[in-house]
Design brief:
By secondary structure, the chain is mostly helical. The chain contains 5 helices and 3 strands, in the order αααββααβ. Helices cover 71% and strands 6% of the residues. The protein is rod-shaped. The N and C termini lie far apart (98 Å).
Length: 197
């Protein structure tokens, strides 16, 4: 009978150990998967930061619609930092990291994924508002519209460097390679295009 009791106790302990090892292995694999997910999140955040830098540098992109999108991104960035601080293991030892991952990992990862999804949508909306901004347009007396080709070309080039070829200012695509019609105002000569509506 003692052998039966010892076998039963040892079996229970081994089952518990097997269960813990499976959970630890799952947590470890989840951490490795999280690393590749975090790499893609980092790329997304760099793109958003680059778009914000363009808006900061180019006054004509600071429209009301763009400002509204930036407010939303700022709010999401605050939530993101709080979530990342909760995920950050800091100076914890490996065992404490695994314990934390087992206890909180999937909930925090879901929160992070939700925030990044919202940031992705906000980036798309911001990108659209930036791309359709009326950069370089000048309205004159008589309600004529002129486009400053130099400014449009410069901003279009910067946007294409961030968004990719052919994804710059929409107005640049509309104007294409239209011939210039002289200069505008008393400032230094600039290429100005008359825009027919």
């Amino acid at each position: 009978m003692e052998v039966f009791g010892a076998v039963s106790a040892a079996s229970c302990l081994l089952e518990a150990a097997i269960s813990v090892i499976k959970r630890v292995r799952t947590a470890y694999e989840r951490q490795r998967e999280l690393a590749s997910v975090l790499d893609s999140y980092n790329d997304e955040l760099v793109t958003i930061r680059d778009v914000l830098q363009i808006v900061r540098d180019e006054e004509s992109l600071r429209t009301a619609a763009v400002a509204s999108q930036i407010d939303g991104i700022e709010s999401l960035a605050r939530k993101l930092n709080i979530c990342l601080q909760a995920l950050d293991p800091g100076p914890k030892g490996f065992v404490r990291q695994l314990t934390h991952q087992l206890a909180h990992g999937s909930k925090e990862e879901k929160t992070l994924a939700d925030i990044m999804d919202a940031l992705g949508h906000a980036k798309s909306d911001l990108s659209l508002h930036v791309q359709v901004a009326n950069v370089g347009l000048i309205r004159t007396v008589g309600d004529k519209l002129f486009a400053n080709a130099e400014v449009i070309g410069r901003v279009d080039l910067v946007l294409q460097q961030v968004f990719g070829e052919g994804r710059g200012l929409k107005i640049a695509a509309l104007l294409g390679n239209r011939p210039t019609q002289g200069t505008f105002g008393r400032t230094s000569p600039r290429k100005i295009l008359k825009v027919d509506r």
